[in-house]
Every structure is written in structure tokens, then in C-alpha cells.
Specification:
29% of the residues lie in helices and 21% in strands. The chain is built from six helices and ten strands. Helix 1 crosses helix 4. The chain is globular.
Length: 224
């Protein structure tokens, strides 16, 4: 029987959007959507919100989730990689006598992800014997035709020869959505992180980092 731990990483500090992880999104803290989606999926043995904040902990209290331990400040800075956070959480649970086969993560700013996405990913992992999975989506326009802007706003192409290639002739490219993923326990401990992509629609793969991202997510959520 596969045992799954879901980690929702929710530190309180954010630079571009103040208190992003608990900012109100259509009437309730945006993190609540990730928590409710995780609970509704019914695929996790344990759901843990990894936070350094008592404010976040108090928000989580309304749900049947125990935050058994807070994230230490040394793992709560903006330059700390989330892999270190996941390793810390897994070790703490091991000390409590709990071991998990799959370590899932769902970011707190993922209101467009629903339970069907998580269930589909779980089924995909089982069917294809996938160890490590990352939710990805397709770039909306061929990245091979990207431009750079200098300080004077002058445009320069990454590749001049690609400007004359028809867009439909470019090989598709994908990017991490910043929404969810899965890491096998052994891969996490040994830091052997080779991922397979799990494709989700672009209208669900919004990585909310800026106010423009936030507004786009609101627009898409209304339509949903």
C-alpha cells in the first residue's frame, strides 16, 4: 500500500506580493483552496502545511490538519530551495515514526488546480511506474523566437535565424507550472531528482508571482 504525504509549503515572507500565501482570493485566504483540493482528492495519508508563521497555522486550524511542527527560520528565507524544506519535513515525520513512499507538494497559490488533477496524476504515476513527477504546461508561443530587451528597451532576438522559421515548425517546449509535483522517498533522500512531466492545461498552470499573475488567476477562476 503506497503511503502519500502532501506538503503545502507556505512561508509567510513574500517580496512581490505581500503575504501572498494568505492573501484573500475571492473571499478567503488563497492557501485554503490548495488545502481543500488536497482533502477532497482523498489520496493522501497525511497533509502537512510547512510554515514558519503562527498566522498560517491559525488559518489551517479550521481544517482536519495538524501542523505538528513549524518550519525553522533557517529554512524560511527566500533563497532556500524547497527540496531542503521537503527533506526537513520528511525527517521530522520519520522521527515521529511515520514514513511515506511518495512525497507530494502542492503550492499554496494554486486555486486553479482541482482534485481531478491530483487524482489523474496519481493514476498516471501508478500506470506508468513513475517515480518523480512535475506538473508542466506548454509555452503559449515558441520560445525559440524569444527576444531580449536592453536598458533602452531595444529588442534583440535570441536567434535571428529563427525569426524566419514558421512557428508551427518549432518543436514544442514546456515549463514547470509551479503548482504540484511528486518525489519518490528514495529520490528525495539521495537527491536523485529526475522528473517526468505531467501535462496540464495552460489555464491551470499559472505560477502566481506577480500582481499580473494574480489578476490572471482571478480571471481564469471566474470562468472556472
Amino acid at each position: 500500500m503506497i503511503k502519500r504525504l502532501l506538503i503545502i509549503p507556505a512561508r509567510i515572507g513574500s517580496k512581490r506580493i505581500k503575504n501572498k500565501n494568505i492573501k484573500k482570493f475571492f473571499g478567503m485566504p488563497i492557501i485554503n483552496y490548495s488545502i481543500e483540493t488536497a482533502i477532497k482528492s482523498k489520496i493522501f495519508d497525511e497533509i502537512h502545511v510547512s510554515t514558519d508563521s503562527l498566522r498560517v497555522k491559525n488559518i489551517v486550524k479550521k481544517y482536519p490538519i495538524n501542523i505538528d511542527f513549524l518550519r525553522p527560520k533557517k529554512l524560511s528565507g527566500s533563497k532556500i530551495g524547497l527540496i531542503k524544506v521537503y527533506q526537513f519535513v520528511v525527517k521530522k515525520f520519520l522521527d515521529m515514526g511515520k514514513k511515506f513512499d511518495q512525497i507530494w507538494f502542492l503550492t499554496p497559490c494554486s486555486p486553479l488546480i482541482d482534485k481531478k488533477d491530483l487524482i489523474s496524476a496519481s493514476n498516471y504515476i501508478k500506470k506508468n511506474k513513475v517515480k518523480n513527477l512535475l506538473a508542466i504546461t506548454e509555452y503559449p508561443h515558441p520560445i525559440q523566437r524569444a527576444f531580449k530587451l536592453d536598458k533602452s528597451k531595444k529588442l534583440s532576438p535570441d536567434s535571428k535565424k529563427n525569426l524566419i522559421v514558421r512557428t508551427q515548425n518549432f518543436e514544442k517546449r514546456y515549463h514547470d507550472t509551479g503548482t504540484f509535483g511528486v518525489i519518490n522517498y528514495n529520490s528525495l533522500i539521495k537527491k536523485k531528482l529526475v522528473f517526468k512531466g505531467f501535462l496540464i492545461p495552460r489555464n491551470k498552470g499559472i505560477d502566481i508571482d506577480t500582481i499580473d499573475d494574480w489578476k490572471l488567476a482571478e480571471s481564469l477562476f471566474k470562468k472556472k
